[in-house]
Amino acid sequence: MAALPLNFSIEQGTARSTMKFVQIPAPDFDLAMTLKSGQVFHWEKIDNGFCGTIGDRAVHVEQVGKVIKVRGGETPQPARETRALRNIIADYFALDHPLSEICASFPNDPTMNAARDFCRGLRIIRQPKWECLATFICSSVKQVAHIRQISRALRKRFGDARKIDHYTVYTFPSPAQLAKSSEKELRECALGYRAPNLLATARLVHSRAADLDALAALPDVDLREKLCELPGVGAKVANCVMLFAYERLRAFPIDVWIERVLKEKYFRRRRKVTGQRLRAFSETYFGKHGGYAQQYLFHHARMNKTHAYGGRRAVGRQQEGHESACPSR
DNA sequence: CTCCAGGGATGAT
DNA sequence: ATCATCCATGGA
Predict the structure, then answer these.
(1) Domains in chain A, please, with CATH?
(2) From the Cβ of A143, is strand C under 7 Å away?
(3) What is the value of pTM for the model shown?
(4) Among A64, A100, A267, A308, which lies 20 to 30 A Cα-Cα from A321?
């Protein structure tokens, strides 16, 4: 349901092919930042842009200044296709999110301000529900680089091939495609102990015992509860799926990075901080777009590891935690 | 080699 | 409720 940017245009691709491409104005948007921020794992850097899939469609996306240029794969019906393509792009990259308003709603403190400044143009995209859920089931105790590897393996083995510019990408396998696989096959994609969880959830979704689309009607608390009923899904993964696939922009996933940020920057003075307290704090302090704030904090922290964050060995950062942000109780 | 990674499920305090 | 432990794999 994205409001479409006006003034889109269609031009003839000259450099790589005769394939038409669509130009879409995208102010307040940083494509590379968005795709590298750890919310989505399958986009690959090709030339000056990125290749990937949106749903079952292969696309190449490139940003030139305040415009993004998009080429699709095979185009049986060019006119209809370009119209659909620009809708899909604008919706996927959430170009209708009022980013300046969202950023203005963040709390005003040194940590948040630094992250806001660093992540300018980062948008929370609208991912397909199943793809997002399945990928984050595979994400537990895995580095981003390895999640990307798992995603690639699953796609190549169980998904459908799509060509874009003589380059092949793969759709994310449907619940049906994964439901009929085996735990052994999944383990061969390096899933390890996550394999039975992904398989069980795929079968629940495929059998419609779990209806991911129907869950969209539920309020946050109920949605989180239903997602947590799925094998391999706990509070953290549920919050990621809520944020990245259900557009619940308040959902605040707390992983090891965010936990460090909260403890080191917002609870510096406190000896022991329970998960309960971190949850309560994050749900209120960061406001109604807390999920956005969380993603900015996550990406900023990760891009600056070894510097500000790094556990006990991180010497040289004697920076005062601003306790004013910390609840006095 | 060791340490750690966008955690979850289970069982014991 | 909080904590401890195990789970499987690969990057740094």
Answers:
(1) 9-96 (3.30.310.40), 98-119+247-329 (1.10.1670.10), 129-245 (1.10.340.30)
(2) yes
(3) 0.92
(4) A100
